[in-house]
Amino acid sequence: MPSSPQCLRQALGRRVAFALLLGCEGVKESSVPSVDRIVITENGASKTLTPDQWKALPISQRVKLLGGAATFFAGATPVSAKEALKELR
């Protein structure tokens, strides 16, 4: 399997699955969770957003929601906001 810096640069900013397809060594499938939904809970009501819907929100609203109303998930597994935001930029 190739492990060149070029291989890793090609994978940078893309999902881990892409890096695995390239055959980059040192990249584990669980390195970066794949966020597939964001649950927003405000005033007792919950709303589910896709990653594309999250990205479409104004930055000011996303920042406000990061104050505790947003929970990120990869399947049924919660993902930390810090890790999720790396993927959702």
Please provide a written account of the structure:
Mean pLDDT is 77; it is low at 8-21. By secondary structure, the protein is α+β, with helices and mostly antiparallel strands. It has a four-stranded antiparallel sheet with strand order 2-1-3-4. A hairpin with a 2-residue loop joins β1 (37-42) and β2 (45-49). The chain starts with a helix and ends with a helix. It is 38% helix and 21% strand. It is built from five helices and four strands; from the N terminus they run ααββααββα. The radius of gyration is 15 Å and the shape is globular.
- Structural class, by secondary structure, is alpha+beta
Mean pLDDT score = 77
Number of helices: 5
For the biggest sheet, the summary is: 4 strands, antiparallel
Summarize the structure.
The protein is an alpha+beta fold and 89 residues long. It contains 5 helices and 4 strands, in the order H-H-E-E-H-H-E-E-H.
